[in-house]
Amino acid sequence: MPGTIFWDVDTQYDFMRAAGKLYVPGAEQIIPNLKRLTDHAHQAGIRIVASADDHVPGHRELSGQPDYRETFPPHCMRGTPGQQKIPETALEAPKIIEPDAKDVRIPGGDILFHKHWFDVFTNPYVESVVRGLDPVRIYVYGVAMDVCNRYAIEGLLGRRPTTRLFAITDATKPIDASRSEALLNEWRRRGVTTITTDEAIAQ
User: Fold this and answer.
1) Separation CA 25–CA 174 (nearest Å)
2) CB atoms < 10 A from the CB of 155, how many?
3) Radius of gyration (Cα) for the chain, nearest Å?
4) From the centroid of its chain, how far is CA 98?
């Protein structure tokens, strides 16, 4: 589908599975919808742009005394199973773009941005790659809605004012459920369309 991107936020073992280092409450419940979105994208020829935490000791997001807003316990440590994406959201031969990459060219298929902090735009190549892709529509899903998804959506709102943004509400979970409705309402006020997985696949 020309002009459309599915944006997969941090669907990694440590966040998605109850045994993970930083499980997002209820994340396992959305895995069937994440698989449906991933399968649909690949079958329909929709590019998936994904992000993934890739931490080493000393990253500013990690803390032994986390506040769960700016800092979190160690998670998604490089080289561990917890850093890997779950099988249900596996990408097809993705181009992995590191924050310190030397040469970034936009590939033809899926893209995976590694990041060292929860804001995907701290990978300096995200903005230029998205500009090069020039999407008309971006559908955002994954975890956590009130942290990494928030930075992705709000970063896109600021950088892509003419791109239609969709937040897939039954394919995301927050860390703090009490913040969800206010966050969704704020996104709607700023022009984000909230939809379900069924609606995203039908469009």
Assistant:
1) 7
2) 17
3) 16
4) 15
pLDDT tens by residue, 11-60: 999 999 999 999 999 999 999 999 999 999 999 999 999 999 999 999 99
What token pair was written down for 57?
């000791």
The pair of three-digit structure tokens given for residue 115, joined into one six-digit string: 């990041």
- pLDDT tens-place string over residues 134-172: 999 999 999 999 999 999 999 999 999 999 999 999 999
Nearest in space to 35 (alpha carbons), one of 11, 3, 69, 10: 11
Whether 53 contacts 12, CB under 8 Å: yes
3-state secondary structure of 201: helix
How do residues 83-115 score in pLDDT, each as one tens digit?
999 999 999 999 999 999 877 788 789 999 999
| CB-side neighbour CA atoms (13 Å) of 20 | 25
- Taking the alpha carbons at both ends of the chain, their separation in whole angstroms is 10
**135 vs 75: CA distance, rounded Å:** 31
| Whole-number Å distance between alpha carbons of 130 and 140 | 14
At 127, phi and psi to the nearest 5? -60, -45
